[in-house]
Every structure is written in C-alpha cells, then in structure tokens.
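Subject: for your reference before the review

Hello V.,

The reviewers asked for a structural picture of the protein, and I figured it would be easier to keep everything in one thread rather than splitting it across files. Below is the amino acid sequence we used in the manuscript, unchanged from the supplementary table.
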Amino acid sequence: MSRIGKKPVAVPSGVKVSVAGRVVSIEGKLGKLEYTHRPEVTVAVEGEGKSIVCDRKADDRADRAYHGLTRALIQNMIVGVSEGYEKKLEIQGVGYLGAVQGNTLQLRVGFANEVHKTIPQGLTVTCPDQTHIVIKGTDKQQVGQFAAEVRAVRKPEPYKGKGIRYEGEQVRRKAGKTAT
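And here is what came back from the structure prediction:
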C-alpha cells in the first residue's frame, strides 16, 4: 500500500472542495486550483467536506505510484489556496541586481545586456531590495519552476560564489589557482 496515499487529506475551514468525475476543484481565500487525476485513482470527499480520501483500483506498481502522487498533489493544492507558497532568491555579486518592472523581472547579472523574464500569470514577484527576489503563488509547481528558471539565468559559481541562489543555499566553494 502507498503509505502517503492511504492518509486522508484534511480540509481546513474556508476551503471548498468539489469532485466532478475526474476533476478535483479546490477553492480558498487565495484562489482556485483544478486537477484532473488519473483514471487508476478515485477521489472522494468525506465527512461533509472535512476530508478527501484517495483510493486505487488495482495493486500493481504504477497504480500504487499514482495513488500517492494524487494524494500529495491534492494536499499541495489545499496548502496553496489556504496559505500559499513562497520561494526567496538572493543575488550575490558586485553590480548584480534585480528589479520588477510591470509584468517583467529584470536581472542585471554580469551579462552585456539585462535579462528580462516575463512573470507567469498567477504568480506575484517582488523585490524588497535589489539583491532579493520573492516569488509567491498558489501553485507549488509553478512557484518552484519559475524560481528554478530565474536561478538558471546565472547559477552560483564555485570560485567566488557570484550568481543567483535560493535563500540559505550553501554553495560549495573551490580553491582557485595558487602560486607555487
């Protein structure tokens, strides 16, 4: 049995859940998310909307995997619409900075030109100062994907540590050339 899939998902107050066929809709104070689950898994709302239970039809390896995956995605959706997700990035390097201009994130990270990243629909990106970027949203996958794309513009390099990194990320440093 999938240990994660067996657990019921608790629905906090203020969150509405509806299941229509294979589409699970979850609505909360921060927004609304929908997910179409696999046909191998069944999703049901129990206890007058207080919990969501996932079950699978067969017991083969793929069905067990989809069982746990479906439950985890529904849990992430509930957390997203009630609390939201947030990723913080920091920019390190002399002259490196970031700014938000309308619907675009502008990054000056050591290239000849500024790098412009369009902010996806459903995300809120702010720059409290020039060396920090905060990405917020209800969809965990979308927040993580955009944060990874921004970090990939200039990954932290191992010699001086310059680049864009997640807040609190430890960059493994290498010794440079030494005189003999």
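For the response letter, the relevant points are probably these. The first strand starts at residue 9 and ends at 10. The mean pLDDT is 91.

Happy to draft the paragraph if you're swamped.

O.
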